Amino acid sequence: MPWSDLALNCPGRSTADLDDASYRACVAGEQRTAGVLASLERQGFRILHSIPLSPRKDIDHLIIGPTGVFAINTKATTYEVAAKSDGTVYTDGYRQNWTESITRDAGVAAGYLATAARMELDTQPLVAVWFTLTVHTSSPALVAGDDVACLITGVSTCTRKPGWTSCSTSRAARTAGQPTTDVMLSADCQDMGGQT
User: Rounded distance, CA 139 to CA 84, Å?
Assistant: First the structure.
């Protein structure tokens, strides 16, 4: 996959050309998440969208800032969403693999970012859900789309990753957009068969 500056990616880029109502809802959800995340830039966060992992898979949003690194995938559904503390998610009675998928993808991104930046980078996986009437969750990885910025900034606990500085944010963000990082992320997920 050829390298491109990931900072130029628009939210929903990987699904924007697909002509299906469910894909249009996904793009709308990703754009709403991007809108909520944009407010974080004034607080020292760097935000990347549509981070390619393979030709068929991406991380919708990668947030790097004072409270750490977060990988977010956005989901759009009109059904009630329920999640247990073990991360098991159900919509309309059907089990979804949303948290398992973003946890795996966040681990891949964290490994390569940590190697390329030469610093320890844990990446918190999150799933932002839009267009549903209710999100019932005891899973730390699932959040209503409107609440994603509060969770990232740690508003309720005012958390800051120990030892994390604005220099750490800049270094990790620069690394995320480098050609070698992009190639490593794409190559690893191709080895995994580009699983979704």
Answer: 6
pLDDT in 10s for each residue of the chain, 196 residues: 444 545 555 555 554 455 566 667 778 888 999 999 999 999 999 999 888 887 778 899 999 998 889 999 999 888 889 888 787 899 988 999 999 999 999 998 888 888 888 888 889 999 999 987 778 888 888 888 888 998 898 864 333 344 444 445 555 666 666 554 444 444 433 333 333 3
Q: Considering the entire predicted model, what is its pTM? A: 0.72
| Residue 182: C-alpha distances to residues 47, 87, 89 (Å) | 15, 28, 30
- Per-residue burial over 106-124, b if 16 or more Cβ lie within 10 Å, else e, is bebbbebbbebbeeebebb
Q: How far apart, in Å, are the Cα atoms of 13 and each of 67, 93, 105?
A: 26, 30, 18
131's CB contacts (< 8 A; 6+ apart) are 25, 28, 29, 76, 77, 78
- Residue 76 and residue 130 in contact, taking contact as beta carbons nearer than 8 Å: yes
Rounded Cα distance between 147 and 175, Å, is 28
Sort 94 into a burial class: Cβ within 10 Å, 0-12 / 13-18 / 19+.
exposed
Nearest-10 Cα torsion for 109, 32, 6, 46:
-70
Phi-psi category of 154—alpha, beta or left, where left has phi over 0 and alpha has psi -120 to 50? left
Rounded CA-CA distance 35/28 in Å is 11
